[in-house]
Give the backbone structure.
Amino acid sequence: MILLELVWGTLYDRFNRRLVMICSLLSMTAIYPLYTLHTRIWYLAILEFLTGALGVAMGPTTRAFVSEESRSESFGVSTGLMMVSSTLGGIVGSALGAFVAQEWSFNYSFYASALLSLFTAALILLSLPARKKVDEHLNRDNLVRGLKPILHTRSAWILFFAAVCATLGAVSIRSFLPLYASERIGMSTLQIGLLISATSAAQLIAMLLLGLISDRIGRRRTAILGFLLASLTFPLFFIAKSPFDLTVVSLVVSLGLSASSLLFWLVPEVTPRGLYGTVVGMYGSFEDAGVILSPILYGVIWSSYGPVSIFGAASFTTLLAALFLLSKFPKRNDIKDA
């Protein structure tokens, strides 16, 4: 993902945007059934690499598409709805896959995924508008020249590093909270399942509400408030001793961390039109870097300083994300189009 997200974002800027999405989905339609053919580790590793390399295309392309098509007065609502839809898809997909696997077999879960990918490709082909006109001046040389100002734009790098910090905070909840709840609080499997469902539901509601708020006070201010809320709430994990305590703290932290969905939507403020896909891909690669770093970082902290210490580290990284956003950003009119 970290290697190829930028590539797909660049292709989005240069070719028919529907074609990029459809190629990704058709590739996944072909790959999913291959999971049922073999169980060797090396074989699964190859499939995982292909899934990341080809499936990741939907990230920068769909986000760039929404960014370009949304009206400025309802931008927060549009982006909030997209993040809600993506999160809801993950929740429903997990439940649907588990149901199919339990009633039939895991093989049928992959077949169902392939059919859903094929259906989505057909839906995009029939419903989404193609780019009205592919800019002829977006050849390789002009693309590189247009990208150079972004590489020298302080605000763009602030967003990229804020994305890494916000991701580090989010992964502490997404990946380590279930383990912590089991080993340190003694929660049962059902209790942990309900905890994860509750935090996911809280994030769904928060994403839409934050989108509405951001249309009134601005995306950057809303994101800063969300990160500050999460950063100030993370230390409460140190005093959470019961399943109820842990659930309440997790819900509040999840509400604050939902602001990370707004962080991406600041990208257009530092991006020339015509380079959305490329810069979205760069942003996504930095998010992926946070995903790669977090298991190593938190694993070392867990082993060296104790399990609850990871939430202290997450509080610090989330605070850093808020501090990054306090820096001055350029006005959109000051950014020249590519």
